[in-house]
Amino acid sequence: MKEETQRHRRRMQRHKAVVDAAIARATVDRGIVVVLTGNGKGKSSSGFGMVARALGHGFQVGIVQFIKGSFSTGEETFFRRFPEVQYHVMGTGFTWETQDKVQDIAAAEMTWRQAEALLNDAKIALVLLDELNIILKLGYLPIERVLETLAKRPPQQHVVITGRAAPQALIEVADTVTEMNVVKHAFQAGIKAQKGIEL
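RE: above sequence
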């Protein structure tokens, strides 16, 4: 048992040395762009988790939800309670519900203008652009405009972008990209969306 304990300690010491060296090399201090994409559940949930983390540090936060908005969600009800949060929702709901491309493009344009205001405000430490990837995939906003705004944002501002099918151009400029994949989902078994889980 003693030998096993010593082996474990040596492994952990080597691991600590590797981690400490990586931390020492990370000297750049600036805002980052995080992209959460893929077909799996948890993209928006992860983004809102970062919002909670930012609020815990006393930061000002901006939230812009694209696509969603025809029904109330738990995150909207919760985060609107905080005076440090500016919360905007596109409000038209899912595109398969509206079935009106012209209306959806106009709504996306209006909502993006709200996002641009947040991305130009140095007081906002973190901006969550929830489901923006869907808007880009559908061609409701030009990717070039989004990339230009991201490039010109305040240097310390963090941006989290969620949604399936993130465009390659966005992935290339992002600092952190996570793709979430489906292994199993309750909806596939006929279980409806649940409050506190999907809503």
